[in-house]
Inverse folding.
């Protein structure tokens, strides 16, 4: 994962439109993408990418002769305080239908891709409902950062760039489940767990205010 600190103004950038699954496969072969790696280990499949295109969650482009994928997403760090102890949600593992297990070292409790034209706050509330089954109030979270990163862990051969908007969320007692949370998708099940968090690690985060705040 690479953080982008500068941009090359001389890049040749051309957006690419794909109208069918077959057209996408042809495009990937044209750019000599190693599809034999897709769907293995923790990598996603052509069908995953096609679904992203259908849902308008990513944009493909050619930059200096290379295939690029651009994604806007919202990420959240979710915390809860009980009996003076701070906890944070982490993605523990994902188990695919074919038996593969993926363990990722990610800095967010959850992340959600934007739908086309969607506001980051709306995407955050929707993602919390879809992923963890939690109805989130706007006074439970606060924006704390934004950046653009290069993350090529999903589709080998494609240069993927993610523009992220980051929020800190505090859960209330009704939302807290000590057993964690389970998100069931078509191809995999994702398990989220609570882990203790050292208070000093929260020092640079702003704290949400309001009746739902855990602080």
């Amino acid at each position: 994962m690479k953080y982008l600190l500068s941009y090359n103004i001389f890049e040749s950038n051309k957006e690419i439109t794909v109208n069918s699954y077959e057209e996408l496969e042809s495009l990937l072969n044209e750019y000599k993408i190693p599809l034999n790696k897709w769907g293995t280990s923790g990598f996603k499949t052509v069908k995953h990418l096609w679904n992203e295109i259908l849902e308008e969650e990513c944009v493909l482009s050619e930059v200096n002769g290379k295939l690029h994928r651009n994604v806007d997403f919202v990420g959240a760090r979710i915390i809860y305080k009980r009996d003076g102890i701070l906890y944070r949600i982490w993605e523990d593992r994902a188990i695919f239908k074919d038996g593969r297990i993926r363990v990722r070292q990610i800095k967010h409790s959850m992340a959600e891709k934007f739908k086309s034209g969607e506001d980051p706050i709306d995407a955050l509330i929707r993602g919390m409902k879809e992923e963890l089954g939690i109805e989130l109030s706007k006074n439970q979270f606060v924006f704390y950062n934004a950046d653009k990163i290069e993350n090529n862990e999903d589709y080998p051969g494609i240069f993927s760039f993610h523009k992220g908007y980051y929020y800190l969320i505090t859960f209330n007692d009704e939302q807290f489940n000590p057993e964690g949370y389970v998100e069931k998708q078509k191809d995999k099940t994702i398990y989220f767990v609570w882990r203790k968090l050292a208070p000093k690690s929260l020092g640079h985060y702003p704290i949400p205010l309001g009746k739902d705040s855990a602080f």
